[in-house]
Amino acid sequence: EAGVAQSPRYKIIEKRQSVAFWCNPISGHATLYWYQQILGQGPKLLIQFQNNGVVDDSQLPKDRFSAERLKGVDSTLKIQPAKLEDSAVYLCASSPRLTSGRGEQFFGPGTRLTVL
Amino acid sequence: AQSVTQLGSHVSVSEGALVLLRCNYSSSVPPYLFWYVQYPNQGLQLLLKYTTGATLVKGINGFEAEFKKSETSFHLTKPSAHMSDAAEYFCAVSLNAGGTSYGKLTFGQGTILTVHP
After folding, report:
1. B83 by DSSP, 3-state: which?
2. Which 8-state DSSP code applies to residue A40?
3. Measuring CA to CA, how many Å separate B53 from each of B31, B32, B58, B64, B66?
4. Phi-psi category of B28—alpha, beta or left, where left has phi over 0 and alpha has psi -120 to 50?
5. 3-class DSSP state for residue B3?
6. B112 touches chain A (CB under 8 A)
7. How far is Cα B78 from Cα B60, in angstroms, rounded to an integer?
């Protein structure tokens, strides 16, 4: 079974530029998560999708971050414009369904973003 | 709201020694608890989880953790460290509740485990 795929693996941009990250979850997984992991910290949930609907985006900085999951499969996370403090690893995870908290989330390798 | 505290950002042990990584949580409802491991330049991998039932849970690679409700703890242990255990470990909690809390993981800040020969 293929795992969660993310691209690109690394991205370096200058502040005020735009950037987009792509995630392809495990086939058949209904729930998709985007996390931000700043160096030295644990991952922080940015947004959670169930199929193509948003379940939780309470910690997404909506003035600059956006995410979509068209057709309930792949997802894209965009930052526009980027700030220095956005430098982090962006992790995508998926799980089979909205599991009431019991289930395992499967993580991709992440995209390391550096904002100069 | 739930939160997780991992005591010690760095833990160093000798190969063959006991590994103990500490995790305390706070939660307004019964929690589900997880330990994940992250190797360099990789995503997180589930080591073990506690949902209900037996409070001592066993995971992959010889790790185990015990849920102690009275102490609000979920410490991770391994009797004998191996060089391949060197990684960063994250404790996480999700709520045993409905609504938008479904599946939402709150992570601790992580503990980097170093294993010396």
Report:
1. helix
2. T
3. 12, 11, 13, 15, 11
4. alpha
5. strand
6. no
7. 10
Structure-block tokens of residue A59: 């910690």
| Contact assignment for B4 to A43 by CB distance below 8 Å | no
Helix (H) or strand (E) holding A70: none
Beta carbons within 8 Å of B53's beta carbon, 6+ residues apart: none
State whether residue B53 sits within 8 Å of chain A by CB. Answer: no
Unique residue bearing structure tokens 């900085």: A61
Q: Which residues 60-89 of chain B have a CB within 8 Å of chain A?
A: none
The 10s digit of each residue's pLDDT in B20-44 is 999 999 987 778 899 999 998 888 9
Residues 6 or more apart whose CB falls under 8 angstroms from that of A53 comprise none
Assigned token pair, B51: 């949902």
Written as six digits, the tokens of A92 are: 């995508």
**Token duo for residue B83:** 């060089």
Does the beta carbon of B90 lie under 8 angstroms from any beta carbon of chain A?
Answer: yes
Q: Is A56 on the interface with B (CB under 8 A)?
A: yes
Instruction: Print pLDDT tens along chain A (116 aa).
Output: 689 999 999 999 999 999 999 999 999 898 999 999 999 899 999 999 988 899 889 999 999 999 999 888 999 999 999 999 999 999 999 988 765 556 688 999 999 999 99
DSSP SS3 for B29: coil
Of how many residues is chain A composed? 116
Q: What is the DSSP letter of A62?
A: T
Contacts of B97 in chain A (CB under 8 A): 101
Cross-chain Cβ contact B107/A43 below 8 Å: yes
